[in-house]
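The pair is listed for reference:
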Amino acid sequence: MAIRKIAFVFLFLNVVFLNSSYSQRYSALDSIVLKYPSFGSPEKLAERIQKDFTSEHDKARAIYSWIALNLNYDLKTYLDPPEPKTFTSKNELENAKQIQLAHASTTQKAFRSKKAVCEGFSLLYQQLATLSGLKCQFVTGDSKRLLNDIGRKRLGSNHAWNTVQIDGKWILIDATWGEGYFDEKRQVSVKKFTPIYFDMAPDYFYMTHFPESSMYAGNTGNKEAFLNGPLIYNEFVDNSCEISAPFSGVVHANDGDKITFQIKNISRLEDLYYLNKKEEHVKIENPKEKDGQLEFQVTYNRKYGRFITFFLSNQALAAFKIVPKQI
């Protein structure tokens, strides 16, 4: 009995500490959602959200926060995905019913197990949004999150997210990336609540997301330009950075060539660097302010590898792929 009491006290203190930590770090709305108890159904959760929040914005944000804070990414399924489901119906109506049933099963599993990949995150968001009186769409498409995504060949859909209508305006939401991120080096999923993937500016969102359907694409350009663009990280968005040069994320350079970069809104110059293969800090060269942006150079050394990733205050900022020039 004493051991059980100690374990309970330890668990209680952990919950209190987490609540306190999150409350200090995130908004008041997120703190309210963090303290929610377990709910027996999505309907019960939606009822609570509608009780606690009245505006469309707050409801949409509460759903985002609840999913990002409560669901865990299913890394096992991500690394070893099952065979895609195929539907062999005689007509479009029957096919649509089968897809709807499959989506309902995925949504229910995500809510009950608190574990899913992007499809489960996004379908659950859509269900909770609909139950809360919001107009919401489930969107599939391509995404860029790993270094090898820069300049890769075209592939089909590999990600899902949402767009939800708030006060007549459709905004972009990725609750999966709001939950955390995949550590490519360690091959582990890291849970880290990330608020920026709620209502992210389209210019930034579409640098890492490319919708399968043209009805969601807006002015996102073509698929090749998307894949060849630089890889941006959360720090890039947080600092409202813009890249003026190079014009592509795929840079053609040979050993010893100087590559010129121009990035707007970098205020902490002394903290900007990239890494060599030994993960040693390498300072940028010839930095100068020009037309409201920072211009600097990097002398390419093939020993550093195929990619150059810039860091700002020890946080990844943006990455480029280096391809040898044709001689």
Q: What stands out?
A: Residues 1-25 have pLDDT under 50 and may be disordered.
